[in-house]
Each structure stands twice: as C-alpha cells, then as structure tokens.
Amino acid sequence: MERNEAFAQVADELQRALIKWKAFNSPHEGYAVIKEELEELWGDIKANGARGGKQQRKEAAQVAAMGLRYLIDLC
C-alpha cells in the first residue's frame, strides 16, 4: 500500500468516526477505544498471521484514526 493511500484510508476512518460518535469524554475513554481497536487488529493478526490482507489494513487504519481522534478531542 502506498503512503498516500494509507493516509487516505486513515482519514476516511477518522471522518466516519467523527460523524458517527461524539467526542471522547476523557483520556480513559480514548484509551479504551484505541485499545479495543488494537485488540481487533491483534485478533486478526493471530487468525491470519503474515498473510495480512484487507481486514488487517482496515483494523490498522482504525487504530491510527482513533489515535488521531484522541489528539483532536483530548490534547
């Protein structure tokens, strides 16, 4: 995946989250959401290993988007 494509995927995920969900209320909530997304990525990694694929890219983009959401809402 090219860098610009990855940035665009993260931006799309962030935009969806900004529309769908209210701002994080606290650092604790932001951490919990990031952790949940990271656990979903880890689950896919354990299930599919090095094969990676579309689902791992989606989950990784969600982790990155929630990290950005944390910066926007809480920092």
Summarize the structure.
The protein has 75 residues and is mainly alpha-helical. It is 81% helix and 0% strand.
Form type:
globular
* Number of strand elements: 0
Tell me the count of domains.
1
Average pLDDT across residues?
94
Q: Major sheet: size, sense and barrel closure?
A: none
Helix content: over 70%
Low-confidence spans: none
Structural class: mainly alpha
> Rounded to an integer, what's the Rg over CA atoms?
13 Å
SS summary, helix count: 3
What amount of the residues lies in strands? under 5%
Taking the alpha carbons of the first and last residues, their distance comes to 30 Å
Secondary-structure element sequence? HHH
Topology:
Elements: H1 3-20, H2 27-48, H3 54-74
Helix pairs in contact: 1-3, 2-3
Question: What does this 3D model show about the protein?
Answer:
The model has no long low-confidence stretch (mean pLDDT 94). The protein is 81% helix and 0% strand. The radius of gyration is 13 Å and the shape is globular. By secondary structure, it is mainly α. The longest helix has 22 residues, at 27-48. The chain is built from three helices and no strands. It has one domain.
